[in-house]
Task: structure prediction
Amino acid sequence: MISIAMKRMLAGFVTGLLCLPFAQGRAAIPDGKEVFQRNCSVCHSVNPPPKSAPPVLPISGRYHMRFSTKSAGVAAMVAFMKAPSKQTSVIEPEAITRFGLMPPMTLGDAELNAVAGWFWDQGGSASGPGSGRGAGQGAGGCN
Result:
């Protein structure tokens, strides 16, 4: 006959096994900032001046100018990180000439989506060109 203590221990063990997939699923969602710090910060700074690649804020600003939703911007960023090309780049051609194209990232989809989401969250419409007094209308006094 199984004692009450043994039944409780067995119930706790079974409950733990049933909850394990949920705990692992939560732990499996990577943090975009951590992915950036581990894999991207070697080449990309967050703010100017640049390291060996364009900084995060101008890149994020460019994605915000090109894409109206975070999901579209993140999807485009992930596609670019998997297979960088001049045709899919959002940065200026002069920046590609200066820095070259980045190598393809060999991270998993979850990490790519996390870091792309973090990149997106760093900027906005005020991060790219047109953030001065002229708001892109040529009235900023730089003509």
